[in-house]
Structure formats: C-alpha cells, structure tokens
Design a protein that fits this description.
It contains 12 helices and 29 strands. It is of the alpha+beta class. It has 4 domains: 34 residues; 247 residues, Thrombin, subunit H (Beta Barrel); 111 residues, Ubiquitin-like (UB roll) (Roll); 162 residues, no CATH class.
C-alpha cells in the first residue's frame, strides 16, 4: 500500500513538472494554465501580489482591480489596481516593487510597475505579463543599435574634427547631467496623465564619495532612478541567499569591486532559466549584458513623494540581464557577463599611494559615464574640493587587437578633478561610440597625482639669439620667457637647427600652448576633417596635445593636402592635381603652409599663451 502511494505521488510530481515545463515553454495552452487573460480582467476582481519588504522573505499583499487602461502605450495596456497589506498603507507603492507579480485565481496577471507620486491611495499600474514576454523575446545576441550608443553629438558640432582638442574631448563631462539624458530614450508614463510614471528603481551607491554621489544623483534622478547613498553589502546576514523566485528581489549591477553601483527591482516570472522583471525598462537600451544578482532588502523608507526599498546586491552574479525593453527587463540564469576592469592609482598631495580596483559594465552608453564617476569620486574623496589645486592625469585604454590609447595632461583650471575625470573617461566614449569599426575594450588604467598648489605659467616673450644671419644648417637658441603663477620669471632655451634643405625665404616661428597650436592646425585645414578609419582615430587621441608642453613650429607658405585622412605637406602642383583626380570627385583638403621644424618642450607647469616670431632664412 505504501509503495502504491509513493508511485502515485511520483506520478503527480512528474505531471506537475511537465505542466511547469509547458507553462515555461509558452504557447496557447501554457497561457491558459499559467497566465490570466487580459480580456478577462474586470473591476472589483481580487488578487494577490508578492514582493520583499525586508530581508529576502517573499510576502503576499492584496490586490483589487480598478480597471484596464487600453492603449496606455502603442498597443499596450495597463491594469489599474489598489494595493493593500504589509506596510503599504503607510508607504504607498514602493520604489523597488517594480516587477512584483500579481496573480488572480492563481494565474499570473502581470507586474506592478507604475505609480502616482504623492498619491493618497496605494494605486498602481500593472504591466500585463503577455506584453513583458513579447517585448523581451528578441534574440539576446542582437547588436546594439547605433542610436543607443553614447551620443557623439554630446561632444559638440566638431566632435571628430582633427586634430582633437582637449576641450572637445571633455565637453560632455563638464555638464554630467547631459551625458545620459541627451541619448535617445523611449518616453514612458504619458498615457495616463502627467502624474503616472514608472516606479523608480533604487540605485545604491556603495563606496562613493559624498560629493560625487550628489553629482551623480542629479544625473540619475531624471532617468527613472532613486539614487541612494549606502554602503555596499553592509549588514547583509552571512550565509547563502535563497534562489531567485517570483516576488524576490533582483539586482542589476553596473559597478563591482571597491565601489558598488546597482539597481534593485523585483522578479515577475521565471521560465526555462529565463528571468523577467521590472514591468518597465531599466533604461530601454535593447540588448545589454549586465550582471544579474540576488538582492537583500534592509527595509522600506517611507516618503510622501514615493517610498523606496533600502537594498543591496550580492557580491556574485547569478546570470546575465540581456534585454532592456519598454515593458520588462529579462535575462538568463547562468554565467555572468564580461565586465571591463578599471584600475585607479592615486598619489595624493600628502604623498599617500592608493589603488582602487573596479569592474564596470561593458556598454557603449553607460561605460564612459561610470568610469567618469568612479575617477571623480576617487579624486574628490582624497583631495579638497575647493581652492587651488593641480592634478596630473594619465589614462591608458587597452583595446583588443589595437594599439594602446593613452592620454596625459596636467590640469590647473577651476575644479581640475572634474576635468581630469572627464579626460580619463573621454577616450572610452569616443571609441565605443565611433561609427568606423566596433572596438572591444579589455581594460582601463588611470593614474592620477594631485598637488595642492597651482602649477601654471604664462608665455610672455619669445626671441631668437643668433650672432649672424639665419642660414640653413646653422643652430640658434630660441628663448621663451615664462611668468609663473606667483610672478616668478623663468627662461627656457631650445636649440634650433635650421634644416639644411630649407629654401631661402620668409618663415614664421609659432611658439604656443597645446590648445592654441591645435586651433592653428584646425584653421589651417579650413574645413571639417574626420578620421577615415579606427587607426586614424586612435592616432588622433594619442596625439592630443598636453598643457604641460610648449610647442614650437616653424612654417612657411607651401602647398599641401589632406588625402584619405593623412596630412601630406609640401606637395608640388602636379602631385596635387593627380591626387585631386584620384579622389573620385571627393573634395581634396588643401593646405597652404608646411612645417619645416616641430618641437615640444616638456615643462613641470601648465602653460598658457602664444607668440609668433617672423624671420628670414638666407642662402
């Protein structure tokens, strides 16, 4: 008799497993079994929702249907419902409940996803499960559309004009609020009146300096997130956390390591190793590769505007979020995605050495922003935020199958920490957003050194010391007088040998800081010049002029051209004609001067100013 009971129990278990697999596989029969049809939703129906209010325990709350909003979005519907139970009477709908599954008659209706800030009643918008599954079924391996990459327009109208200038390179980072908000994003929450919006996602900043967090908060608050300044994984009970389950908290990690940045929501549905959550987008990026993690909820913070869960993610990923769509995020349990190692080495003004090891998500839009915030946080946390300061920065970007990208500079302008952080992250944005070829970033290493004094100087005078006429083959001394920040005067001497092949005639010696010399070259081109391939772009970034250099250039009137992205000076008229014809109708960029001598003088200060010195070479 006992054996027969056991066999019957095994048959029931097998049948239950088969039904569960069928439900996960989808199809009409599976929908009838697992999902509550949207057309059967009626006002007054009672249901139950599941979420985590504290710890990892999934608890139930009550749901009463108010009605269905059709065409809330393009062919999208939303179920309006009143939520009760647990702390909801005090808190209202909670940020972090995004994705909380709602069941009617034991069948999954959808996910709590929308709310009314400042609402006196706990009324929520529920995204139907069918729309979540439909939106997230796109192939995870699909490439990211160019429109969702870091917007090149954020660099300004001359984003890829060469030679590159430091001002162009750091332009989008001077105003961080423009970094992500300028990117194309699907507008949400407009179909039910101006007050209804997707529930904010708690975005926990762990390890960040307070000032950097405040700067980031202004950036992320307008993007549907609720930034929270919180230590990473402090107070989480030791031991393993339970497996992911519908109603459980789930985290999407952006930064790991010495800093932690992650958003938390709720799981709606799991089938065949696929996890569906949120009921609204993370950022509506489409295909992504972000780590999926278990999450722990410390408590709920009540707020008159919108309450939010105080939460933290586990240290290890349990899968990959690969879809970020208008009605859901989705991912697969299993291996974690690749992240980009970021190392920040800092030598403080007090002589201390500090190293920070991070990993940031690999994403054309978010990676540059996250690198910028990380470097800025390190500098702000270890140096003063106001007053005179100098920062030396070096950024090394390793690419698969490409030369190393290296940017160095000495910054003394107002708030050098901000400019240094932007300069360190800018090559990421330039290369990951380029339209020439895809790149794979293997690592980013940033080295910074800070000084509490301002190390700057201004070029006051330039002259040539020569005992006689200037002739080819002779060596003269070019003198440059520099006035320091405190008024001290120094004179630099550069030996200059006039080339043996230099023809007689008029020359002009331009001595200038890096920015001025770059402007001179850009004016010489007289029209927009863009790189034609990735190697040219990398060379342009590596050739970025530095503030702690004084640049010398001897030029004379002579025809040249830019051909196929390469600068060819001193070309005879016959060669210019041939090259112009070979361009297939494409206009040739002609230049009117040629350089006879170029030199850069390393300095220990950031220099500003320029001087032009005309002279004649005799034969």
């Amino acid at each position: 008799m006992n054996q027969g009971v056991e066999r019957g129990a095994r048959r029931l278990a097998a049948l239950a497993l088969a039904v569960a697999v069928a439900v996960g596989a989808g199809g009409a029969a599976a929908d009838d079994l697992a999902f509550f049809p949207l057309e059967d939703v009626r006002p007054g129906q009672k249901g139950v929702g599941r979420t985590v209010f504290a710890g990892t325990q999934i608890v139930d709350f009550e749901v009463e249907v108010i009605g269905v909003l059709e065409n809330f979005g393009p062919k999208q519907s939303m179920v309006l419902a009143r939520l009760t139970g647990g702390p909801l009477a005090e808190t209202g709908v909670i940020a972090g409940m995004s994705g909380s599954p709602v069941y009617i008659d034991g069948k999954l209706l959808g996910a709590v996803a929308y709310g009314f800030p400042f609402s006196k009643q706990t009324i929520a918008g529920i995204t139907p499960i069918g729309e979540m599954l439909e939106a997230a079924k796109a192939a995870p391996a699909a490439p990211r559309a160019a429109s969702t990459r870091f917007p090149a327009a954020a660099f300004g109208p001359d984003a890829f004009a060469l030679p590159l200038s430091r001002a162009t390179l750091v332009a989008p980072f001077v105003h961080p609020e423009r970094l992500l908000s300028s990117a194309p994003r699907l507008p949400l929450g407009t179909g039910a009146g101006p007050a209804m919006a997707p529930l904010q996602l708690p975005l926990a900043f762990g390890g960040f300096e307070r000032g950097a967090f405040e700067a980031a908060r202004g950036l992320f608050e307008g993007l549907g997130f609720a930034p929270v300044f919180a230590p990473a994984r402090k107070g989480v009970p030791p031991g393993p956390m339970p497996d992911l389950a519908p109603g459980g908290a789930v985290g999407v990690s952006l930064i790991e390591g010495d800093f932690d940045l992650s958003a938390t929501g709720t799981i709606t549905h799991i089938a065949d190793g696929r996890v569906y959550a949120f009921g609204h987008p993370f950022y509506n990026l489409g295909p992504i590769r972000f780590p999926m993690k278990k999450a722990y909820v410390f408590d709920v913070f009540p707020s008159l505007y919108q309450s939010w869960k105080i939460s933290s993610t586990a240290s290890e990923a349990v899968g990959t979020i690969d879809q970020d769509r208008a009605t859901a995020i989705a991912g697969a349990l299993g291996p974690a995605p690749r992240m980009i190692p970021l190392t920040i080495n800092l030598k403080t003004s007090r002589g201390d050495q500090r190293t920070f090891e991070l990993r940031v998500v690999e994403d054309e839009l978010f990676t540059p922003v996250l690198a910028y915030l990380s470097v800025f946080s390190v500098l702000q946390a270890n140096e003063r935020a106001y007053g005179t300061q100098t920062v030396r920065i070096e950024s090394r970007l390793a690419l698969e199958g490409r030369p190393e990208v290296r940017v160095e500079d000495l910054l003394t302008e107002s708030n050098p920490s901000l400019l240094a952080s932007g300069l360190a992250a800018a090559p990421l944005a330039y290369l990951m957003a380029n339209s020439l070829e895809p790149v794979k970033v293997t690592s980013l290493s940033v080295t910074a050194e800070s000084f509490e004094d301002e190390r700057s100087a201004r070029l006051e005078r330039v002259w040539v010391e020569s005992p006689g006429p200037l002739r080819p083959g002779t060596t003269v001394a070019v003198k440059a007088a520099l006035r320091g920040f405190r008024g001290e005067l120094t004179v630099e001497s550069v030996p200059f040998r006039i080339p043996d092949t230099a023809p007689a005639g008029n020359y002009n010696l331009l001595v200038a800081d890096g920015d001025t010399m770059t402007v001179f070259e850009q004016r010489e081109l007289r029209q927009r010049y863009e790189p034609r391939n990735l190697d040219q772009l990398i060379r342009a970034i590596n050739g970025l002029r530095r503030s702690d250099r004084l640049y010398f250039r001897l030029v004379r009137a002579e025809d040249g051209a830019v051909v196929g992205g390469e600068w060819l000076p001193s070309l005879p008229p016959s060669m210019l004609t041939v090259l112009g014809a070979s361009q297939g109708g494409e206009p040739l960029i002609r230049t009117r001067t040629a350089s006879a001598w170029d030199f850069e003088l390393p300095l220990q200060v950031a220099v500003r100013g320029s001087r032009s010195l005309p002279f004649v070479v005799e034969r």
